[in-house]
Design goal:
The chain is an alpha+beta fold. It contains 3 helices and 4 strands; from the N terminus they run E-E-H-E-E-H-H. A 4-stranded antiparallel β-sheet has the order 2-1-3-4.
Length: 142
């Protein structure tokens, strides 16, 4: 049996796959790392088990962000007071559809500007020259 763990991030109403792992603990650590990061994202970890003999795949959510878990848990029902008059039939509630998980294309990385590169180069050269001067000074003391 093959087992894989997917870490999903909730983004814009959809779950996006952030990463995949072969080990449960690594997936759980990554989910918690994302939750505690600067953007404080909602995460879940999905375990997928594939049985090669039968060809069946089983999917199970093994972890969700605690605040998400609280939001998904329905509130306990309060007893309704006895109606004084007969009520009209309530309209049927719309059934929420689950949208399939989509992979987002990787973000394009912006390259550093020429100014940043030039300043970095000047800093490195300056530190190198300062180091050489310091070494010459220290060698003359001894």
């Amino acid at each position: 049996m093959l087992v894989a763990y997917e870490v999903h991030i909730y983004d814009g109403g959809d779950w996006q796959i952030a990463s995949m792992f072969n080990e449960r603990e690594l997936a759980l650590m990554e989910a918690r790392r994302i939750e505690e990061g600067l953007r404080r994202r909602e995460t879940r970890v999905v375990e997928e088990s594939h049985d090669e003999d039968s060809g069946r795949t089983r999917t199970k959510i093994i972890y969700t962000t605690p605040k998400l878990r609280a939001r998904e848990t329905p509130a306990p029902a309060k007893p309704a007071p006895a109606p004084a008059q007969p009520k009209k039939a309530a309209p049927q509630a719309a059934v929420a559809e689950r949208t399939p998980t989509r992979r987002r294309p990787p973000a394009k990385k912006s390259e550093p500007s020429l100014t940043v590169i030039a300043l970095t180069l000047i800093l490195i050269v300056g530190l190198g020259v300062a180091g050489i001067v310091a070494l010459r000074y220290l060698s003359n003391l001894g």
